Amino acid sequence: MRIMHKPGSSPPAAALMAYLSLVVMTSFFGTAIADAQERGDSNQQSITLSCDGKASIAGEEAPENLKDFDVIVNVASRTVLGFGNVVGKVSAIDKHGIAFSGSRDVTLPGQHGMMSMSVVGFLDRIGGGVTANMTTVTLSSRVLSKKFDLHCARMSKLVFLDLTD
């Protein structure tokens, strides 16, 4: 992937976020989704929600349109996958929704230091909406924020789940 910007200037936030997301997702996320989907098909341990909506990066004018964006709820481990390579732990559940949050430090190949990623979100069990905020702190301490506003199919499966202990 080649990112173009003026010499001596910082790359645009969207391009930097896209690059960082690609690097991180290829190292972890693809395997996590495949494993979660496999578990879900075999024993209903997880549910894959297919979502459409928008993702906007703070400071950018035009939001990114998302189609068939997967959000995976793992019932057995009480986790949510789909936002970078961060595994969100379910922190609260009620009849209206599921709150989740998580963080992860990532070492990029060939780099010294760590990049920090976190996500905080909510799955609306009644209306089918998913909102999440993903924050990335780069190696240069630059903070990037991405907000997801999604509507998901198969959410009705979550209405009947008892995820409480």
The secondary-structure class comes to alpha+beta
Integer count of domains = 1
Oligomer: single chain
- Beta-strand fraction estimate: over 45%
Order of helices and strands: HEEEEEEEEH
**Helix run count:** 2
- Name the average pLDDT: 75
- Say how many strands there are: 8
How does this structure look, described?
The structure is a single chain. The chain has 2 helices and 8 strands, in the order αββββββββα. The protein is an alpha+beta fold and 165 residues long. It has one domain. Strands 1-2-3-4-5-6-7-8 form an 8-stranded antiparallel barrel. A hairpin with a 6-residue loop joins β1 and β2. It is globular, with a radius of gyration of 16 Å.
Keywords for this entry:
2 helices; 21% helix; alpha+beta; 165 residues
Brief synopsis:
This protein has two helices and eight strands. With 165 residues, the chain is an alpha+beta fold. The chain has one domain (13-159).
